[in-house]
Specification:
This protein is 34% helix and 21% strand. By secondary structure, it is α/β, with parallel strands linked by helices. It has a single domain, classed as Flavodoxin domain (Rossmann fold), CATH 3.40.50. A five-stranded parallel beta sheet has the order 2-1-3-4-5. The protein is globular.
């Protein structure tokens, strides 16, 4: 299984970074080949050098209702080139955090979720699955709630070996 992770946050001290570390640790329990792109950290990686993944993981904070600008730009520049980069993707997992409540996000149209569904999933295999892991009101969460969310993320990625739909 080939996994492409795009993590977007400019700080190495962010909760997004904590999510990434949990994901990478969880993937050590799988047989996955992982490619990591750190969007917004001035680390460049040519998407054309990567093998086509079976799974795309997006890890990002929701800012102003959507993807961070750096992630959106990277998606448009790298994944939507018409080069078929996502043609083998059988699952997209989005892991995000929000400052606002779930209700506010629903009223706003859940832009990140909608964009992924409208723009990314059509570039993937016809039978593509998607999973949305989201923590709302992040700035008002207790440490135990943050740990619980990280545990849920860990379980989701550790289960990938059991997911026959994406194993190759």
């Amino acid at each position: 299984m080939k996994i492409l992770i795009a993590q977007s946050h400019p700080s190495y001290e962010s909760f997004s970074e904590a999510i990434l570390q949990v994901v990478l640790e969880s993937l050590k329990q799988t047989d996955a080949e992982v490619s990591l792109v750190r969007v917004g950290k001035q680390e460049s990686s040519s998407i054309l050098e990567l093998e086509k993944p079976n799974l795309l993981a997006l890890i990002y904070p929701t800012w102003w209702g959507g993807y961070p600008a750096s992630l959106l730009q990277w998606i448009q520049d790298s994944l939507m080139l018409g080069n078929g980069m996502l043609a083998n993707v059988q699952k997209v997992i989005s892991v995000t955090t929000h400052g606002s409540s779930k209700l506010v996000n629903i009223v706003q149209g859940e832009w990140g979720k909608a964009y992924t569904k409208r723009k990314l999933l059509p570039l993937c295999k016809n039978s593509v699955q998607s999973e949305w892991l989201s923590l709302y009101k992040i700035d008002r969460q207790r440490p135990q709630n943050l740990e619980t969310f990280l545990g849920e993320v860990s379980k989701s990625f550790a289960r990938l070996n059991e997911d026959e739909a994406i194993r190759c």
